[in-house]
Design a protein that fits this description.
The complex is a heterodimer of chains A (552) and B (98). Chain A is mainly α and 552 residues long. Chain A has a single domain, classed as Sodium/glucose cotransporter. In chain A, 69% of the residues lie in helices and 1% in strands. By secondary structure, chain B is mostly helical. Chain B has a domain of 65 residues. Helix content of chain B is 54%, strand content 0%. Chain B is elongated. The chains are: A mainly alpha (552), B mainly alpha (98). Chains A and B meet through helix 5, helix 11, helix 12, helix 14 and helix 15 of A and helix 2 and helix 4 of B.
Amino acid sequence: MSHVNSTVFTIVVAVFILVTGIGFAASRWRRAQDMMHLNEWGLAGRGFGTFITWFLLGGDLYTAYTFIAVPALVYASGSIGFYAVAYTIVAYPIAFIFLPRLWSVSHVHNYVTPADFIRGRYGSRGLALSAAVTGILATMPYIALQLVGIQAVLTVMGVGADTTNTYLQDVPLFIAFVVLAIYTYLSGLRAPAAIAFVKDTIIYVFVIVAVFYIPAKIGGWGHIFGAAQTHFTSTNPATGKPFGTFLPTTKKVGSTQLDFVTLALGSALALFMYPHVITGTLAARRRGVIKRNMSLLPAYSVVLALIALFGYMAVADPATVASVKKTGNAQLSVPYLFQNHFPSWFTGVAFSGIIIGALVPAAIMSIGAANLFTRNIFKEFFKPDATPHLETRVSQWASLVVKLGALYFAVELPKTFSINLQLLGGVWILQTFPMLVGGLYTRWFHRFALIPGWLAGMAYGTLAAYNTSSPTSSHWASSSDIVFGFTLYIGISAFILNLAISVVLTLVLRAFKVPEGPDETLPRHFTAEATDAPAKERAPVPAGEARPAPGG
Amino acid sequence: MTEPAAAPSGPGSTGAPPEGRRNPLAAHPITSLLIGLLLLASIFFALYVPLYGRLTPKVGDWPFFYFYLLAFMPVMALVLWVVTLLQRRLGTQAGGPR
């Protein structure tokens, strides 16, 4: 515990205690008659309006990814990091197209998870299982990214024992995580929804202050962009190549344009398929709430763009560059930038904002993944007659296990570019796109074609990501690889492979008239309103009832 | 907070609504086309880097690339708001242009 600034430390601890209090008290918020029901614990009663949904989805979308991972990539590589800005622009029109349909059909049939929908739509438990497994798997590195973000702040604060033992070093992180686990267990989705208010208030304040204050202190925007341009176009003596790019480059100098576009598009397509984002969506009261939010959420994207620019501010600030160089960890650039320029009390506010900004999504993610496990693995394959009470109990425990799994990812994968954790999750979750988003529009895809397509995409994507190497790590070093001479995001190349296989096999299976399986949805279910069928009612085909598999 | 009352099915009704509600595309081809175009255009102009991946014209101290990305956010919010309004005119709550 050397060089800990007591003001910073006190404020961070105070905010953490406040948030913990809110987390525990949240179980009484909008109190339900019976909390032991997945609609309550996992979806907070499905009653959130526009305002709360905005905070909740904002809590989902803007995480340690935004505060630590994106600026770190910008700091280290320049313009390619701004793919994240393009990504948060296009995510909303894409979601606007399909998310309301998912809300409606889930409302009518009382679906809690995306895999519930896939099961009902294709009448295939196997396909639902593949979606559930993918969702759980993809969530873990994303939670791990939150841990890495908290770690970065704690490191800069100087908190942590002076030891090289990873586990001892991370004791404060573990404490924060255990406390989070306990109130998530008790309050379910209500906890992160309530805490999201505090989180976003702090974040909006510190980002807006920082965006005016820091440039004024270090020489203005002209200086910041100038310094970044000089730095990223100069040659790195270690590699003989430029340090990065100040603008996405064209083919002549090794294209980063396609990489930029595929990273942005792939991330945008993936975003609203993550179980935790769908959890946030299904907790909305009305279909209109989702749509309205799509035009309100870009307010968060503005913040994301400004935070990405912190990466350039760090490049332009010699003190921060020196601090980062000493540790060799670009992820510390934003925390150092704040520490070097803000008075201690404001640094404390900013740091606590980043820490809560990582805890809130970690809670929602573990709930989303836990619901997948309960509904589509436990209930489906082990205990079809599970009561709502048992379902909820299982979800509560599963949320703890998911957090442990994330801890493993955080320790095992290279931490230098935590953004790869999020992009790896994206590679996986994108493979459920044909079955999920495809299924929202058409029953054309054959269930037995979607499974091999998914498998191929997962296998290719995982292998390709594993095989990327860099001077500092032999595996999992990047999320882009080169296909036929083009550098592009692995998620997109795997997705194209997946889609091609699904289409070809569907044509074959249809030619042989292989049975397609039952479909419990009707066209009008996809445009249903809250008044059309209350979610509390039983769905036409009771969820969890083992249905015969025709043709099987 | 209220959706337009154009949906013919009354509150609490779980029965099949009349056919007319279900086919907004045929009923309002121009509005539907406009919605589709707005959504596609906003995606295209955000992703097509060759269009904006350059230094000039600078806006204040900001290179064009960075200014464009930041300025796109409010534009996107506005487009999606207009699309929501247009969809209400369809007299349905259809999820998208397709």
